[in-house]
Amino acid sequence: MTSSALLKIDNGKSRFDVNKQLLRSTGRILVDKGPLILFGILLIYLAIYAPYFLEWQNLTTIFRHAVPLSILCFGLATVIVTGGDDIVVGGIDLSIPSAAVMAAAICSVMLTKFGAGMPTALSLAVLAALTVGVVNAFLVVIVGLTPLLATLSSSVAVVGITKLITAHRRINVNNAFINMVRDDDILGLP
Questions:
Q1: How far apart are CA 104 and CA 110, in angstroms?
Q2: CA 5 to chain CA centroid, nearest Å
Q3: Which pLDDT tens digit goes with each residue over 167-186?
Q4: What's the rounded Cα separation, in Å, for the pair 190 and 181?
Q5: Tens digits of per-residue pLDDT, 3-59?
């Protein structure tokens, strides 16, 4: 029996080809399902080794802290989905998080430093976030920049503006409405 005959499997493929095919399919599964598998392993590990991880109070705290990020992710996902699958030509807005932080900073400064009412502070915050969107639209539609470059550059500018507004410091807001949105359940949701 020759060496080439030893490498053949009954369907005519060599062991090398079969192993290569198995490695490719395993790689595809890990790429597609890897983060979910890793999350499941982490969840099982924490459930076993952290005694209070699965208690209702801890899960509620986790969900409370996930809400702001989920809202931002929903906005970004909407932009990506409606803009198409080519993120260079259209479909991604990198300025959403920085615009949201700037809006929160404006609202906080208006409430604490200037003593404005909640409607005024929220109106100015929304106006500032809309202005970021208008500037992005101008850069993309009129100037002709790609959305990725336009929103990345405006994001950097908005971060700088936010640092000017807050003077590089944390702003503590003690407002009943803000506390209610942050701490209470709304329609049974944390």
A1: 10
A2: 54
A3: 999 998 888 888 887 777 77
A4: 9
A5: 444 444 445 566 667 677 777 888 788 888 888 999 999 999 999 999 899 899 998
The residue type found at 27 is G
Rounded to whole angstroms, how far apart are CA atoms 102 and 94? Answer: 14
Q: How far apart are CA 151 and CA 71, in angstroms?
A: 19
CA pair distance 184, 178, nearest whole angstrom: 10
Half-sphere exposure of 4 (CA within 13 A, CB side): 1
Cα dihedral angle (171, 115, 68, 48), rounded to 10 degrees?
50
Burial code (b: 16+ CB inside 10 Å, e: under 16) for 19-28 equals eeeeeeeeee
Q: Is-contact 158 98, C-beta < 8 A? A: yes
Q: Which two tokens stand for residue 106?
A: 């404006």
Q: The pTM is what? A: 0.62
Burial category of 129 from C-beta neighbours within 10 Å (exposed 0-12, middle 13-18, buried 19 and up): buried
> What one-letter code names the amino acid at 182?
R
